[in-house]
Amino acid sequence: MKLHELITASLTGQATLVIKNANVVNVFTNEIIKADVALAEDTIIGVGEGYSAPVEIDAEGAYLCPGFIDAHVHIESSMVIPDSFARVIMPFGTTTIIADPHEIANVAGTAGIRAIYKLSDDLPLRVMFMMPSCVPATPFEHSGATLIAEDMAQFLRKSRMLGLGEVMDCGSAINCSKDMLDKLRLFDGKPIDGHAPLLSGRALNAYRIAGPSTDHECSNFDEVLEKLRTGMKILIRIGSAANNMDEIFREIVARKLPTDNMMFCTDDKHIENIQQEGHINCIARLAVKCGMDPIEAVKMASYNAARAYGLRNIGAIAPGYKGDMVLFKDLKDFEVKQVFTRFGKPYEDKPTPMPIIPPAVFNSVHLPPLSKESFALHAKEVMPVISLIEGQLVNTRKDLPVLRDENGLFISGNGLNKLAVVERHHATGNIGLGILDGFGIKNGAIASTVGHDSHNLVIAGDNDDDMLIAAEALESCGGGFCVVSRGIVLARLPLPIGGIMTDAPVEDVLELQRALLDAAKYIGISASNDPLVTLSFLALPVIPSIRLTDRGLFDSINFQFIE
User: Fold this and answer.
1) What is the spatial distance between Cα 79 and Cα 64, in angstroms, rounded to a whole number?
2) How far is residue 180's CA from residue 402's CA, in Å, rounded to a whole number?
3) Percent of the chain as helix, strand, coil, to the nearest 5
4) CA-CA-CA-CA torsion for 228, 230, 235, 240, nearest 10 degrees?
5) CA-based nearest residue to 128, from 105, 166, 158, 90
6) Are 245 and 236 in contact (CB under 8 A)?
7) Distance between CA atoms of residues 99 and 70, nearest Å
8) Do the Cβ atoms of 443 and 462 come closer than 8 Å?
9) What pLDDT is stored for residue 393 in this prediction?
C-alpha cells in the first residue's frame, strides 16, 4: 500500500487482518501488553483495542513476538535450495534470515551468488544477503573462484545486499592487504561481519579498526566480553557442530551484561537438526533455561539483529512495522502456534513451482586421476595430529606416536585415521594429507565435497582403497557425501548443485542423511559430533588451531603451514 493509504487506514482502523487477544511483546519498553494487532496488507497499522477486519485470528492469550531473525546463516549448509530451507525453518518462527552465500561463491563465483539471490526471490521468508568477502577464505587453499572488490561492486545496487560478509581472513585485514582493504572500503558505512575466533589484544583492536563490527565465533565468555568492549556486536551461535553456549548464557546472566548488542544465529545447521530441535527459537529456549529474561531473549532473536543490520520496520510489533510475527504458546519453550510472513499473512506450507536453476552451478567436481598411491602418507614416529573437541568447531593440535608400515607410511590405528583434502574444482592434482584424532573409523571411509569454505573433496578413512572408492563415488554424482566400507558404498547423498546443494525434496534429503549417519556409526564414528558437519569444517584454515587444506597441514593460529 502507498504511504497515504496506510496513514488513512491507521486513522480509520480499516484493517485487512486483526490478531485478537494477544499478549504482545513490546521490545521498546520490555512489556507484555494484552492487545489486538491490526494490519493493512503487510504493515501493522495499530496495536490496541477496537480493531476489526475481514480476517480475524484469536490468539487466545498466546505471546505475539516479532518474527525471529537468523543474523548469520549459510543457506547452502542446509544442503537444500532456499525454497526448501524456508519451508524447514519458518514453522519454528524464523521469518527473516541474513544469508552469506560464500559457500556457493567459493564454487561458482559471482554466478553462484546471482543464482542463490534469484532462487530466494518471492519467498514468504525474508532473505537478506551479505556479500562474501573471502573467496577463497585465505590464500592457503584453492577454491573454485576468486572474488576481488571489482567483482563485488555490481552487487551494491541489489536491494537485499546489506553489507560485507564475514571477514575470515583476519591476517589480511590487520596486515593491510590491498585486496582486503579495497573490499572494506567498498562497503564502508555498511554492516561488515567479522569472523575472529580467539583474536585478542592489539590484533583485535586492529581488526576492529579495519571495519568488522560483529563476531559469531566466540567460544567462551571472556572472548565475548573483550569483543563487546571494543564495540563489536556478538552473534551467539548454535548450529549443528557449534553448540556449547550454556556457559556463555549463564555468565551473561550472572554478570548482568547488557544484551543490546547480542543476537542469535545458526551459521551452519542441518535440516534434520532443525526439525528435531528448532531454529532460532531453540536458542531463545536455551537462553531462558540459562536464566535469561524472556523478553531479552525475544529481543536478541529479533529487534537486536534488525537494528544491527539496518533493517528498518522489522523486528518489532508497532505501527509502521512489517507484519512478519510469530505466536508462541509461552516464552519458555517457544513452541510455535502460528507464524505470519513478510506478506502479513498466516504462513502456509505450500509447494511452490520448481525454480529454474542456472546451469553455471552444476558439474563442479573435476578431480585429477587418483589411485591408492595418491593417499600415501610418509610419517615420522611422532606426527602432528588434528584432534577434535566435542561440541566445538575449534580443534587442537597433538603430537602423537603413530603406526607405520615397513616403508614408513602411516597406518591407521590407536584411534587415528588418515585425512585427505583433494582440490576438486580444476583437477590441479593438489592433495593435502594429515592425521585425524576423534573419528575412530574402522574398515571404511567418509567423504564430502562440502569442505568449508573452498569446498574441496575431504576424505577421512582407515584404508586407501575405501578412500579412493569414496572419491570416485562422489565424482560420478557431481558431489555430496558418502560412506564406504570394505569396497562398498553404504550410503550416498548426491549434491549436484555446486557439489554442496540439491533441489531434491526435503524428506528425500533427510532419508539419505539419516542413512549416512547410520553408515558413519557403522564404521565407528561417534555421534557426539555430527560427522557430516565436523568433516566439512576440517579444511577451513580460519578456525583454530590446526586444519588441512589441499596445500597441506596448516597452523590456523600462526597462519603458516606445518612441515
Assistant:
1) 31
2) 40
3) 30, 30, 40
4) -100
5) 158
6) yes
7) 8
8) yes
9) 81
SS3 208: helix
| Residue whose cell numbers read 537438526 | 273
Nearest to 245 by CA among 263, 270, 272: 263
Judge whether 76 and 100 are in contact, CB under 8 Å.
Answer: no
Say if residues 432 and 518 touch (Cβ distance below 8 Å).
no
- Cell representation of residue 370: 587418483
Cell numbers describing residue 1:
500500500
pLDDT at 243: 62
The interaxial angle of helices 246-254 and 280-289, nearest 10 deg, is 50
**Tens digits of residue pLDDT in 351-365:** 777 778 888 899 999
In 252-351, where do the E strands start and end? 262-265, 325-328, 336-340
CA atoms within 13 A on the CB side of 451: 33
C-alpha cell at 561: 603451514
**Is 527 a residue whose pLDDT tops 80?**
no
Distance of CA 282 to the CA centre of its chain: 15
In the chain the first and final C-alpha atoms are separated, in Å, by 64
Helix (H, G, I), strand (E, B) or coil at 417: strand
Spatial contact of 459 and 446, defined as CB atoms under 8 Å apart: yes
3-class secondary structure, 521: helix
Q: What is the rounded CA–CA span in Å between residue 445 and residue 424? A: 18
CA 158 – CA 286 distance, rounded (Å)? 36
C-alpha grid cell, residue 281: 527459537
pLDDT at position 296, please? 98
Instruction: Please give the pLDDT value at position 187.
Output: 97
Where are the strands (E) in 304-415, listed by range?
325-328, 336-340, 382-388, 395-401, 403-404, 410-411
